[in-house]
Tannase/feruloyl esterase family alpha/beta hydrolase (Comamonas testosteroni), 323 residues
Amino acid sequence: AHPSFNPQSIYRSGHAPDSRCCVNLFGIGDALAYGRFMQQSPVDGMVQNTAACKTAFDLQRDVPTCTSASARDGSCLTAEQKTGIGELFSGARTASGKKIYASWPYDNGIQTGGWSFWKFVVPGILDSVAVGQIWMTPPQDAASFNPVQFAATGNLDQILTGVNATSSTYTESAMSFMTPPNPSNLSTLKGRGAKMMVYHGTADPIFSSDDTANWYDSLSKANSGDASNFARYYQVPGMNHCAGGPSTDQFDMLSPLVEWVEKGKAPAEIVATARGTGNAGGVNTDLPSDWAADRSRPLCVYPKVARYKGSGSMEVASNFSCQ
């Protein structure tokens, strides 16, 4: 539920991006893909280290500010747009400023139509119905419910209260039903020798990979600072929700998981490839035109990130190492 609150916190703030914002996001994406925030040289058009990018990237400084309404051609953002987008990426908050969800990584995958659709269209046609009529107690009246109005003007604090509420009819809250009481306690799974491999696209517009990283950090802390002997997390740079985005989003994690469980061979990096022209699994239309159709990258065990070794083609995973 918390990820669904994020667009509402922006609409409520009065800084909601208008219809041109999706175009203007290209300016941010280009700054991320081709700026100094990549933490590697030469630049390959991917944000491998989102944590370092978050520190280095400054929305106010690094994206041009439109000087007039007529200048809004996708190459700049207005001051209001910067405020709204900055709030969007900082994570949902209540009216008092209490943070209720993780921040979102700055990643050039925000340039895609899929990202914009899930962020700015879905809240008015799917998320609002789920939050208002399924998760809230009591549910909103179905006959009079207006999903677009709910997304644009709903009171975030009241929604949060409703998602955590119970009644004689709904004896368990939606939040309790959907979230484990202690997500960092996987002692039962660990105790029976099970293994877990988790991956998440850093340009996922629905669930933030920062939230997954926070969870894995807490899992590690609960296991004396290292959970890698039974659970490993992989970030997929540029990947949108499950697939797509400027990413190498084709990879096999099932085989190494089987090897880990059945033979005790712990997985290291996973080689992922882009789905360019001719790919048997389907072409990813979000790929930049200057990428090789079969560009490959290592997906690294968190918190390591892929870095260029300094020689060889930047289209080949073997010329990168996880550091």
Notes: The first helix runs from residue 2 to 13.
